[in-house]
Design goal:
Mean pLDDT: 95
Helix content: 10-25%
Number of strands: 8
Largest sheet: 8 strands, mixed
Order of helices and strands: EHEEEEHEEE
Radius of gyration: 14 Å
Strand content: 35-45%
Distance between the termini: 14 Å
CATH architecture: Roll
CATH topology: 2,3-Dihydroxybiphenyl 1,2-Dioxygenase, domain 1
Structural class: mainly beta
CATH class: Alpha Beta
Strand order of the largest sheet: 2-3-4-1-5-8-7-6
CATH superfamily: 2,3-Dihydroxybiphenyl 1,2-Dioxygenase, domain 1
C-alpha cells in the first residue's frame, strides 16, 4: 500500500471564510468546495493541500488529518486486525471517496481514503 498525500484538516464554523486567506495570502486554489468542507491546493504542487471543514457530513467525529492511500481496504483490514479504534466504518461517500476513520496511538482521528 502506498500513501499518495497527507492533508491537515482544520475545523472552522465557516469554511468559506478561509477562502480569502488561503487564496490571497498563500496563493492556493480551491480544489473542492462542498459548503461544509473546502480543500485548498498549491497550483504547482497539487498534493500540498489544506482542508477546512465545519462538521463532517457523514461521520460522527471530525478528523485531524486525511491520508489518501492507494488501497483503503488493505489499510482498513490492517487497522481492524491490529485492534485500532474505528470511528467511522469503511464507507463509499457520495462525493467520490471510499474512506474510514481510525484513532491513531496519540489520539488523533485520521480519515483514511482513496478516490
Amino acid at each position: 500500500m502506498a500513501v499518495r498525500r497527507i492533508v491537515p484538516d482544520f475545523q472552522s464554523p465557516d469554511p468559506a471564510a478561509s477562502r480569502a486567506f488561503y487564496t490571497d495570502v498563500l496563493g492556493l486554489e480551491v480544489v473542492m468546495d462542498l459548503d461544509w468542507v473546502m480543500t485548498f491546493a498549491a497550483p504547482d504542487t497539487p498534493e500540498a493541500q489544506i482542508t477546512v471543514m465545519s462538521k463532517d457530513a457523514t461521520a460522527p467525529v471530525q478528523p485531524d488529518a486525511s491520508i489518501e492511500v492507494d488501497d483503503v481496504d488493505a489499510a482498513y483490514a490492517a487497522a481492524r486486525r491490529l485492534g485500532y479504534e474505528i470511528l467511522h466504518p469503511i464507507t463509499d461517500e457520495p462525493w467520490g471517496v471510499r474512506r474510514f476513520f481510525v484513532r491513531e496511538p496519540s489520539g488523533k482521528v485520521l480519515n483514511i481514503l482513496t478516490h
